[in-house]
Amino acid sequence: MTTPADKAKGSGFDLKQQIKFLKKIEFFDNFDNHELKQFLSVSRWLKVAKGTQIIKENTRERAFYILVKGEVSVKKTAPGKKTPIKLTTLSAGDCFGEMSLVMDVKRTADIVTDTECFILMVEPGIINTSNVFLQLKFYKRFCEVLVSRLIVANKKMADLEQTVPTDVEPPGEEPREKTAGVDKAEPVAAEKHGRHKKSLLSEETVMVLPPMPGKKDKLVKSKVKRLIKTSIDLPFNPSIANRLAPHLQGECENTRAFADLIQLDPAFSSKVLQIANSSYFRRSTPVATVAHSLITVGIKQVQEALIETIETTAPQKPFSGFNDVSLSFWRHSILVARIADMLKEVIRVNLSSDIYLAGLLHDLGILALDQIEPNFYPNLVDPGSSLKKNLSDSETDFIGVDHGQAGCWYGESIGLPQSYLDVIAHHHFPEKAGSNAVLVALVHLADLFAMLKDFGVGGSGYEPELSKSFAWVILQDQHRPFFDVHVPDFIENFTKELENTWSGLTDGLDF
Question: Smaller CB count within 10 Å for the chain: N or C?
Answer without folding.
Answer: N
